[in-house]
TrEMBL record:
UniProt source species: Mucilaginibacter pankratovii
UniProt name for this protein: Outer membrane beta-barrel protein
Domain of life: Bacteria
Keyword terms, alphabetized: Signal
Signal peptide: 1-20
Length: 419
């Protein structure tokens, strides 16, 4: 396990480093006094709602804006945030962290809410921090005051009941949305059916709000930020695997010359984006398969084998250059591989088989390796890459030992429509 943790350490350091990079996009901010300031906003991955933003003016001056200075900011065609001053709930809703009893605790804070949709009946916002995701709404037909949509989950009863997993769920947010719909006189069977069984999630709440505002898909695009909602995508690709296999005999000496195998490799995987709009920091899981061949002669003996390698590789990538149609990225991963060996042969130089007791191939069934990848993404569809895998022993026995170092080259195609 220590080896695994040490191998993954560079990935975590790489992830931390990636958050420090600038990514200025055209946008504007509105001050508390109502003045509009145009410039560029440093648009980061923002796993939670930002407490402040870095703003670059046309004369290249950079300053920080907080809720004490601005009430609104917009990154063109991507995201919009609005200042909110009011109560924010602090009860847990994660089943793994909730405690016994109903928790109505809250604090009054000044934060930036993310605008999800605006409309004639209702506006929808979101706020995410280390505790939980929350959603807010306002009614443009009244005072336009912003209120949190309330959702609570808690254990109901004593300690013994907590251990049994007896929970109570309060979907107060449905009552709040129903009240807005009744006030606007739009609560019909269709809207009620949309509300029934709705979860406290962004997709479900957007369905309700979109129906309440009476928007078509085309109208939705005009009334909410135009960024991507696709937080992940799939990809498939083909390439080449170039593997160098070296061997050692029982005395630690080189057993024959290294053998190079270059054969096709197939991959399938998915990318998950911290921010679907920036797509700068990416977590991926890739499944790959390739064939490796080996043949060598040493000390009047000839030995060979075929090897199929199936690998599962989680990785983290960061786009150092992140243009719209061209991206350059670096990636670190940790591959776990399964080895399947066949056509194993160990014969004398003249082709005479050696007795079974001399067969040296005590192969490993599994292994792991750190992966280093560099690549380009062109027109949001074609990913061209080169990848290096750290060397690994694949067989250790009393007679021969093998070690392999691999390099992969290939092209992946991103499946699905890209915004």
């Amino acid at each position: 396990m220590t080896k695994i943790y040490l191998s993954l350490l560079p990935v975590f350091l790489f992830t931390t480093f990636s958050f420090a990079q600038s990514n200025f996009k055209t946008g504007y901010a509105v001050t508390l006094a109502g003045d509009t300031v145009k410039g560029e906003i440093d648009y980061q991955e923002w796993g939670s709602n930002p407490a402040s933003i870095r703003f670059r003016t046309p004369d290249n001056k950079i300053r920080n804006f907080t809720t004490a200075e601005i009430k609104y900011f917009s990154i063109d065609k991507l995201d919009i945030y609005q200042r909110y001053s009011g109560p924010i709930s602090h009860d847990e809703t994660n089943n793994n962290r909730i405690l016994g009893g109903r928790d109505t605790s809250f604090t009054v804070e000044n934060v930036f809410l993310k605008v999800l949709q605006t409309g004639k009946v209702i506006n929808l916002y979101s706020y995410l921090d280390a505790i939980k995701p929350r959603y807010f709404y306002s009614d443009p037909g009244t005072d336009n005051a912003v209120h949190e949509l309330i959702y609570r989950v808690y254990y109901n009863g004593n300690t013994s009941e907590i251990q049994k997993g007896n929970t109570t769920t309060e979907a107060t947010y449905l009552q709040q949305l129903t009240a807005v719909a009744l006030k606007a006189n739009i609560l019909d069977d269709g809207l009620q059916q949309t509300m029934d069984g709705t979860e406290y999630t962004k997709p479900d709440l957007l369905k309700i709000v979109t129906k309440m505002n009476g928007y078509t898909k085309a109208q939705v695009a005009l009334t909410q930020p135009g960024g991507s909602d696709d937080s992940f995508d799939l990809y498939a690709g083909l390439g080449l695997n170039a593997t160098k296999t070296t061997s050692r005999d029982q005395n630690g000496n080189a057993a024959g010359t290294p053998y190079n195998s270059v054969l096709p490799r197939a991959v399938f995987g998915f990318n998950a984006y911290v921010n679907p709009n920036t797509r700068r920091l990416v977590f991926s899981v890739e499944l790959s398969a390739t064939d490796i061949k080996y043949k060598n002669t040493f000390s009047n003996t000839s030995y060979s084998f075929d090897q199929v390698v199936t690998s599962l590789t989680p990785s983290v990538s960061y786009h150092i250059y992140n243009g719209d149609n061209f991206k350059f990225y670096l990636s670190l991963g940790y591959g776990i591989s399964k080895y399947t060996f066949f056509n194993k042969k160990f014969v004398k130089y003249d082709g005479t088989p050696l007795p079974n007791e001399y067969l040296p191939f005590l192969f490993s069934s599994y292994n792991n390796a750190i992966t280093y990848k560099v690549g380009f993404l062109i027109h949001k569809k074609f990913q061209i890459y080169a990848e290096h895998l750290s060397g690994n022993p694949i067989a250790r026995d009393s007679y021969y030992g093998f070690k392999q170092t691999s390099n992969n080259f290939g092209v992946n195609y991103i499946l699905g429509k890209q915004k």
